[in-house]
Known about the structure:
Elements: H1 8-12, H2 20-34, H3 36-50, H4 56-70, H5 86-99, H6 105-118
Amino acid sequence: xxxxxxxxxxxxxxxxxxxxxxxxxxxxxxxxxxxxxxxxxxxxxxxxxxxxxxxxxxxxxxxxxxxxxxxxxxxxxxxxxxxxxxxxxxxxxxxxxxxxxxxxxxxxxxxxxxxxxxxxxxxxxxxxxxx
Length: 131
């Protein structure tokens, strides 16, 4: 699954896999393997999803991307070294590109705060284009 090929319809297929509990469980078990940038993007999407101001159409896309992120056995199973989270990263990037206009500074600030709790040494380079 490549972010160049992911459409919003592709992401919507996975929204039934999303739950807040499963999201936090995934981060708990895979945060260090995924790395700060992947975790930050996932957190930005999470805080955008729970933001009451986010339009419903964007919430569905975000839930789909996070649902895909949560799945342990997707196109590239997460336990595979190096490549296992590449497809999850592609889904997160695609979702960010679709919902970028709904991502607020407040959502990014909450994500950054949580990221620093998980990765105390995270720096600006770990925030990517969502700094």
